[in-house]
Every structure is written in C-alpha cells, then in structure tokens.
C-alpha cells in the first residue's frame, strides 16, 4: 500500500518549515505561524507562548523524517474493508489485489492460521491447504487476489501454493 500524505497541521508545517528557514514576512510571527497561516489558529497555537512555539518548531525539524513517514489512521484499510468492494470494483478485480509483506517471521500456514501483514491487515487461512517452509522467512512478500463468489486467495512469493483466506480484522 502506498503511504498517504500527512493531513495534519504538523504535517503541513513540516513540509514547509524545513524549506522556510529564512522566509520573509512579518518579523513578529513565528516561522510556524507564517507557514501554517489559518491552520495555526485552527490548531489553537495562537495561545502558545513564543518559547513553546520555538520548542515545537525545533521538534518538527529534528523529527522531520519520522513525521514524513506517518500514515494517517483513517488511510489504513483493514482486510474487511478491502473485501467490502462494490459491484463496479468487483468487475475490476485487479484494483483489489493486496500486495504487502508478512509482518515478522513466517514459518508457513495451516487451516485457521492468521497472518498479519505489514500494512496492518490480518487474513485467516480458510481452507485445508498447508505450507511449511524449510527455514523461517523474514517478512516475505505476499499477494492476495479476489476470486469468484467472494473468495480471496493468498500466495507467498517464491511458492506455488495458494490458500483461500478471509479477513480476520
């Protein structure tokens, strides 16, 4: 899944603050206020002291990479949300393909195994297929594709075995 842009006031400020170090403007306004504009007041930051604003600005600069990597919670999709496709999306099955990685160590599956993906989705093996790997794999890539009659099929990269799965979250 691709990461969504940060949609918060801090995200907006981060993107512009890093490049606005010497921005021209009202000398009485902080860089953060200059960058955020109306969002500055919307976030309630006009009540903060200049010292508090300076601490926030410094934090944003020091943690820029971490803040850029954030994904807004509402942008995450559970496995159940992916399967709740409307008729139009079902006709275009390729758009519903889930490509991710298994979070952590993977040793295989059997009926009832729940696999958690790096994108936060959880899928439960719903058939009697099994897969045992000779050595545990670290974060292997997986593809989950829709099938007929609302079924979903999981495949681990490098293995030809597929498993019928259902969303577990």
TrEMBL record:
Signal peptide: 1-23
The keyword Signal is assigned to this record: yes
Keywords recorded for this protein, A-Z: Signal
The name this protein goes by in its record: Secreted protein
Taxon lineage: Bacteria, Pseudomonadati, Pseudomonadota, Gammaproteobacteria, Lysobacterales
């Amino acid at each position: 899944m691709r990461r969504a842009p940060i949609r918060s006031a801090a995200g907006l400020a981060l993107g512009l603050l890093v490049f606005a170090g010497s921005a021209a403007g009202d000398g009485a306004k902080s860089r953060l206020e200059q960058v955020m504009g109306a969002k500055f007041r919307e976030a309630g930051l006009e009540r903060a002291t200049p010292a508090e604003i300076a601490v926030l600005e410094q934090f944003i600069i020091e943690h820029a990479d971490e803040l850029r990597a954030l994904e807004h919670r509402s942008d995450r999709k559970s496995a159940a949300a992916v399967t709740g496709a409307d008729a139009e999306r079902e006709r275009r099955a390729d758009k519903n393909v889930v490509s991710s990685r298994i979070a952590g160590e993977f040793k295989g599956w059997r009926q009832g195994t729940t696999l958690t993906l790096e994108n936060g989705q959880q899928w439960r093996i719903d058939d009697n297929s099994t897969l045992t790997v000779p050595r545990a794999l670290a974060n292997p890539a997986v593809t989950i594709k829709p099938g007929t009659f609302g079924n979903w099929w999981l495949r681990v990269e490098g293995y030809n075995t597929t498993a019928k799965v259902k969303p577990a979250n």
